[in-house]
Amino acid sequence: YLVGVGRADCTGPVAQVPLMGYANPDQVGGGLLSRLYSRAFIVADPEDSKRVVFVSADIGMVSQRVRLEVLKQLQSRYGELYRQDNVILSGTHTHSGPGGYFQYTLFWITSKGLVRPALSSIVNGIVKSIDIAHENMKRGRLFINRGTVENSQINRSPFSYLANPESERSRYSSNTDKEMVVLKMVDEDGHELGLISWFAVHPVSMNNSNHLVNSDNVGYASYLFEQEKNKGMLPGEGSFVAAFASSNLGDVSPNTRGPFCTNTGEPCNNPQSTCPIGGAAMCMAKGPGNDMFESTRIIGQNIYLKAKELYEKASQEVRGPLSSAHQWVKMSNVTVQLNATHTVKTCKPALGHSFAAGTIDGVGAFNFTQGAVEGDPFWDQIRDQLLGEPSNETKACHKPKPILFSTGEMTWPHPWHPDIVDVQIAAIGSLAILAVPGEFTTMSGRRLREAVKSEFDSHGTPKMNVVIAGLCNVYTHYITTYEEYQVQRYEAASTIYGPHTLSAYIQLYRGLAKAIALNATQELSPGPEPPLFNVTSVTLLPSLSAENAPAGKTFGDVLGEVRQEYGEREVAEVTFVGANPRNSAENATEHNFLTVERYSNISSSWHVVLNDASWDTRFYWSKGSRGQSNVTIEWHIPAGAEPGVYRLRYFGHYKKRLSLFRTITVPFEGSSSAFQIT
């Protein structure tokens, strides 16, 4: 094959934009722990024009808006080379990235609308990573390996899982998929290019009290792998690219100690995930570490170490033709042939009451509980008044789900949920990547993989390695099994196209697999094209106005100085007169907010040893009154840090008023005093 890899920043605004994932409107960005990246991999046939592109981006999920804008840009650059059928865009599902990149109304509620700078940095970052991969194509080889990851996940809805038939459950040793699949890429001389790992776990080691933008546990795994392979480079630099992509993580949590009542400390692993005092709002899962930062590192390191082992031992070469199959489907109206005599249908999208309960990884508001199969007259009445009552047809279709939001019947100012959804498979020789538009639960993923594998088998393509890539192309929440759906925990309440959603997807992906196996992808009907709403920016974000430094100070002045000396495992900290970090995101595509620098006696100059993409640094922004704000930079000095003289630097932009109607953005910087590490 010809192989190319690329990585580009897609962080966007790190302040004031709500973080996407927990749907908690109070969880807005207030700084940076680690940068977000888009990682792109292109595999091409040297003989003809066939190509496959796989992108894994450190974002909550790929939205339809992101996908449509990326495809538009690719078409204007490359013509028909990169298209909706051969480009897969997948989100890692971090819950600590900026939101606001959606065109469907439901997602505007918690992300304060459509935030153009957030959307643009994701779209541009994805396109740039593909550009870099495209420019670096060289002859190469691919190897695949698989293995088991221990101590890194639990099933967060075990009572739903138990609703699946005993005969099915008995075929599996665990209620989560512990298997990791690794695809290793080297050039023809054996030089290492990169890897993609697929593993099912929610990147929610950082909980909903976090305000620092970061890529969570799987992002930390990428960071460790890339730091190891790009020796001597700063984080985010170097040619080796390591993506830790999402899979069927729907009911899988990294918070391995399980759910406890935050007020009493007793376990709350019951079907409703509620506590005797305080109800569901008190039931939260704990990770393996003492705090969320440590849990993120522990889980990330587990995943990294297994990937490293599988990568080093990978010997099974991937060979064979490239192909891709894609359809747009009106997901609210699919007829599913269950057997010779019986058909069922999917529904218009709707969310159930337990959607509002959230999960043990991030509880909801108002004390909704999971497992609600009856509505609550109080909330139903409020909904009827505000949003209109669901139609009888939709109510009947979704049974036993009590509908909270009948999003498929809500169209103001735009539809609240997607109707047209992508289904897509890309095959690289013996590897088939199923790009799914949401979060399949453990058992849903198993059923889908098995169905697709048997479809390949029965059409003369045996021994296919089938992997699920999650959160691709358009976000449609969760996909549970029919049996799990009956229990109506959070994942089931969020299965928006009704009880037969999984059966519909299985039928659709079988069709794609058959077309690939029979070399008939040209005959697939493309389906109805999704809409691109004519909305460029609708946002409740505060506007960026002129800023001030306190009397007698200027931007970048130190307000709280470092100590003169630190030891390892201590935290060096400095506070500056700061400015809104959104200014930087809107003025520089790849702005670095901080550096840790070491003084070299040999050259009598300062050398950058860390940047803001490092997991050892934290950048905090806090807004004060009268247009003033502070920035605090922390360096959590690791064990084994090299002794010497260091300083911390800050780079920002402030808005300066020129006249009544004009402000300009002015760059500035600040530096701490020098300090010693002993």
Outline:
Helix content is 22%, strand content 30%.
**What general form does the structure show?**
globular
Largest sheet: 9 strands, mixed
If you average the pLDDT, what whole number results?
96
The total count of helices amounts to 14
The number of distinct structural domains comes to 2
* Strand runs, count: 40
Task: Report how far apart the termini are.
Answer: 51 Å
So what's the oligomer here?
Answer: single chain
Helix content: 10-25%
Derived structural class: alpha+beta
Beta-strand proportion: 25-35%
Low-confidence stretches: none
CA radius of gyration is 25 Å
3D structure, described in words:
The protein starts with a strand and ends with a strand. α6 crosses α7. The chain contains 14 helices and 40 strands. It is of the alpha+beta class and 678 residues long. It folds into two domains: 2-330 and 417-521, no CATH class; 557-677, Sandwich (Immunoglobulin-like). 22% of the residues lie in helices and 30% in strands. Strands 1, 4, 5, 6, 9, 11, 12, 13 and 17 form a nine-stranded mixed β-sheet that branches. A seven-stranded antiparallel β-sheet has the order 7-2-3-36-37-33-31, with no helix packed on it. Strands 32, 34, 35, 38, 39 and 40 form a six-stranded mixed β-sheet that branches. The model has no long low-confidence stretch (mean pLDDT 96). Its cofactor is Zn(2+). Residues 510-677 form the Neutral/alkaline non-lysosomal ceramidase C-terminal domain. Belongs to the neutral ceramidase family.
